Automatic annotation (TrEMBL):
Protein name listed in UniProt: Vomeronasal type-2 receptor 26
Compartment list: Cell membrane
Main location: membrane
UniProtKB keywords: Cell membrane, G-protein coupled receptor, Glycoprotein, Membrane, Receptor, Signal, Transducer, Transmembrane, Transmembrane helix
Family label: Belongs to the G-protein coupled receptor 3 family.
Signal sequence, renumbered to the chain: 1-17
Membrane topology (UniProt): Multi-pass membrane protein
Organism: Cricetulus griseus
GO function terms (MF aspect): G protein-coupled receptor activity
Amino acid sequence: MLFSWLFISCFPQITIPTPSYRSSECLVRMQYRLNGKGNMAIVGFFPAYTAYPLNKTTDWRMAKFTRDFMVEFKLRNYQCILAMMFAIEEINNNPYLLPNTSLGFEVYNVPHDQRHTLANVFVSFSGTGYGISNYRCASESTPVAVLTGPSWALSEHIGTLLGLYKFPQLTFGPFDSALSERRRFSSLYQVAPKDTSLTVGIGSLMVHFHWNWVGLFIMDDDKGAQILSDLRSELEKIGVCIAFVEMTLVSRGSFLTTSWKNQVQILKSSANVIIIYGDTDSLLSLIVNLKQKLLMWKVWVLNSHWDYSSFDNYLLLDALHGALIFSHHNEKIINFTNFIQTANPSKYPEDTYLHVLWHSFFNCSFLRRDCKIADNCLPNASLEFLPGNIFDMATSEESYNVYSAVYDVAKSLHEMTLQQVQLQTPGKGKDTVFFPWQTPQSVCSESCLPGFRKTHREGEAACCFDCTPCPENEISNETDADQCVKCPETHYANTEKSHCQHKTVTFLAYDDPLGKTLGFISLGFTSLTVAVLWVFLKHRDTPIVKANNRTLSYTLLTTLTLCFLCPLLFIGRPSTVTCILQQNTFGLLFTVALSTVLAKTLTVLIAFRVTTPGRMRRWLLTSRAPNFIVPICTLLQVVLSGVWLATSPPFIDKDAHSEHGHIIIICNKGSAVAFYCILGYLGSLALGSYLMAFLSRNLPDTFNEAKFLAFSMLVFCSVWVSFLPVYHSTKGKIMVAMEVLSILASSTSLLGIIFAPKCYIILLRPERNSLHHIRDKT
């Protein structure tokens, strides 16, 4: 007789002598499907087996089966199919649950790729041999719910489609918070409880055995990241250190991991306790490598979602012998073990899976055309007698979840039937008709969605309420929330008010359009002022430059150059240095500029009032006493700034309220009193300069600039008087921009009004800038 190899998992670990024809081909060639008759049906998608290409060049997505495949049995998942069949048999035999109604089932194997999985969903809905969307052909049974699992990826793929039809879906795999998003999976219900106590249980185990040096292997997905965070927190709390963390990448939508390349990590590590979190599909290659290395003297701490039949090698020494496994406590399913023991091809002749198992392990004759065994087989053969631990007779966690899910569907159907019987008009005798998304309602008020809170109606029952939108910057992220929660200052509520999102940090930056514009204006006027200063220096010996104290003119132009550069301190990310320099530099420079204008007006006034020179006026004129006004006024400003910095200096602050969704970094002035004292001091200098210039505006002289000085001070005061109300009515970046604009506007008024007429004469009318012209005019 010829023999071939039968692969029980995706690595060669056991060999089974079989006839030349591999009966496992039937599962793939006939696309394993199992039906139970009933006028209502529960559809189940289970990865009962997986076919892999032996040759890398083989296209495993081909619809046609070839012999270049190996088949991996997933017997833990097949136990879930038996649990579904057992629960439905119990329900159909119960006269008090779903009377006059028979519950059937449809079971589909989950193929490798997402495309064929979704195609099977359409096949189930259509009732034909091929899928037709939005069309139902078969009439003998109506699908009422879909069971999916144990993989979260499978439930997610199918749930995306079922959500479009609002078709009820129950998942029996481990709880996954991603599947709880009601906006994405509005019709999905997770049967498994949330793993809230897993990390606490592992931590207690570490404390009990005094283990404080452990390694972690976790699947690299959202659930794995959450478990890693919880484990780190719990282990750090009890003083357990983590030797290494290996995140095993799981291809989303695939049931195989990428190759595990970091085998050296566990071999070299001194940690003898290894915590592994994942399931059979996600960490399969990891266990393969561990078993091949035969790593002894290691303690393995596992969660419960493992198909041990994929790893048990009953011809070799078990490398994971003595592993500690955490699982949820489940109630025992009465008579389920007896049901498994009696499940055989004779009892369920349409189940090809049982025929293949009997042929593979009990050496039964096999009819290739029908994919069934002959009658000459062991009469007492049972799943219990499969070699080794390849089939666990104990009820798995997933099987219990399947059993519970079937009963949940049946109870819902029972309630809906009773409801429609009560509403049905007597005597019409119509059959009960309902849509599958109707999981029956009897409520006073519809549930409040996330983003709303319940407001109880006065004088009515507690179940009667109105849904009120959450206030500004408050959220509710669950259905029927009693109160909204205020977002932290660093977060803001999204439009739906269901989540708090991080605020974006912002400031008046150079790459911001407003900051860029102000920066260009600042540099442009700086260049213009330098050009005017160069013109005055070049023509320093001409009458118009020498008139009205050219030293003060040079001082004023130099100060204005720095004033135009001052706004650059306000643009860019604030720092402690720039916050201190902003207001103090601004105050100091404008004090020098205004005191220079004051000195120039006094020079004009003294010069033209000396018609009968006295000793005092002559001394004031010849000693250039007005020049001392600049250092005296500047010294007073330095004193004010010193007091400000010593008492309450400016500092970096955050404005989280001015702009929605933004945290604005600004410079807090520290002491508002000191800031307004400086503005008041500058205002008094500007007013004094204006009064002096106003008094000498009509004095006759060829180059009398008193009129221009008076007008420039008038514009200067107007700018800053207008600045105050606008400054207080704005916030954030706009407030900073308003101060920068005021600095630029007031500096431009001084430059333009005082020096533009002089530059006009120097550059365009040079004949008027001569002693000959002055004598002729006189």
